[in-house]
Amino acid sequence: MAAIDDGGQVGTRRSALARGIAVALGVPGLILFASAAGFGALARDAGLSLGNANLMMATLFALPAQVVMVDQLARGGSLLGAALAVTLIGVRLLPMTAVLVPYLGGPRGGRLGKVIAVHAIAITAWMEGFRRLPAIAEPLRLPHFLGIGAGLILASLAGTTAGFAAAGVVPPAFAAALLFLTPIYFMLSLIETAGGAGDWLAIAIGAALGPLAFLFAPGFDLLLTGVVGGTAAYLLGRRWRGMWRLDGHDDTVRDDLRDGR
Amino acid sequence: MSALGDGWTTAALIVVMALVAHEPWRWVGLWVGRDLDIDGEAFRWVRAVATAMVAGLVMRLLVFPAGALADVPAALRLGAFAAGLAVYAAAGRSLAAGVAGGSVALVAARLAFA
What we know:
The complex is a heterodimer of chains A (about 260) and B (about 110).
Chain A: H1 2-5, H2 13-22, H3 27-45, H4 50-60, H5 63-74, H6 79-90, H7 93-100, H8 111-117, H9 123-132, H10 138-166, H11 172-193, H12 197-216, H13 221-260
Chain B: H1 8-33, H2 41-63, H3 74-90, H4 95-113
Helix pairs in contact in B: 3-4
C-alpha cells in the first residue's frame, strides 16, 4: 500500500537500508542481544577485557566460534588447537553464505558491498535474509541486507556490553531462559522458511543427527550433520518430489477413467 | 597458561584468528554462491546441507546445553521447546509468540520443578 501511495519513493536504496537496520529493533535483534549478553558474561568469566570481548563479537560475529575460542584459550589450550576448532565450527558459514548470495542483488551487485555484507552472515542475519530478501525488489536487496547486518552487529555489541556488566547478578531461571532463546528462535525460523519436502527432511534429519554426531565426533559434529544429513534429506526430497509428480499424474488418469465411465 | 588476557596482544590474536580461521569461509561461500541457480539441483543440495547443520546445532544447544541452561532438567528443556512450537502453530505461525511462549514455559517449569 505505502509503496503505491508514495509513488515509488518508498523503494529507495536508503529506505531499504533503514528498514534493514530496523530489523535489529524487533525479535531477531532482541534475541541476538540476549545471546550476546550470554557471551559477554562468559568472556568476563574467562578473563577477557570488555574491549576485547566486543572486538571478538565484531570480528568473528558468530557466537559458536566465539564460545569455542574463549573456551579453548581460557583452559590454556594451544593457539593452533583454538584455530583448528574455530576453522571447523566456521565451515557451516560456507553453505549458509552460498545459498544467500543469489539473493544479494544478482551478478551486477557491487563486489565490495557483497564482501562486507557476508561478514554479517551468522545464523540470525542468515535467517532474516532468507525470510525477507526474496520478497524485495532485486536492486534493493543488497542495501537491505547491509542494513540488517549493521543493525544486528550493533545489537550484538550492546548485548555483549550488557552481559559483561551484568555477569553474575542475573537470577538462574532468567539466565537459563536467555540461553534457551537461541535454539527456539533458530528452530522456529527454520520452520518458517521451510519451503518443500527437502527442507522439512533436512530439519528433521539434522535435528536427530546433531546430538548423536556431537556424542560420537565432537568438533566434527556440525560438518558431519550437514553433509550426511543434508545429503540424505536432499536425496529423499528429490525422490519425494518425483513421487508427488507421479501421484498427481495417477490421480489425473484415475479421474479421467472415472469420468469416462 | 591462559592465552587470554587484557591488552593489545589478545586484540591482535583475535583479529588474526578471525581473518585466517573464520572469515575465509564466508568469502569461499560468496565465490561458490555467485553462479548458483536458485531453481537448480546444486542449490537444493547446499540449502539442505545448511539447513541440516543449523537444525543439528539447535538440538545440540538444547540437548547438551552450557551454563545456566544445563541446570534445567532435560525433560523440562524439551517440554518448553515443544510448548514453544505449539504456541507458534496455535498463534498462526507467529515467531514472536512461539519464542515468548517457549521461554515463559521454561521459566515457569524451572521455578515450579527445579
